[in-house]
Structure of Diacylglycerol kinase:
Amino acid sequence: MEHVIAATGYSAAGLRVLLREQAFRHELVVGGLIIATHLAIGVSALFIAGQFLIIAMLLAAEALNTAIEKIVDRLSPERSAFARDAKDLGSAAVFFIIIANAIFAILAWLSNVA
């Protein structure tokens, strides 16, 4: 039980770090707007649950991307191909999940029209 309590504290501390990141805050807001739109137009509960899962994956990817950026900035403060590539790869992972969120939201909205 002590491990669970400690892990929860570490996660809360990580969330506090993420809340200082503008990209994370933007993703939270847009995710909330997507869910609100789903609710407003009557999208099915299954689509809403799916969207929550994809948004959670986006937020997790943003957390990992932020961790990569912090590690790279610490290990390679000078400009280098290593640092650029590591940061770009983290950014690409976030981008792919943003695209997945957009596609899923559009499919949910279209399914509601049909």
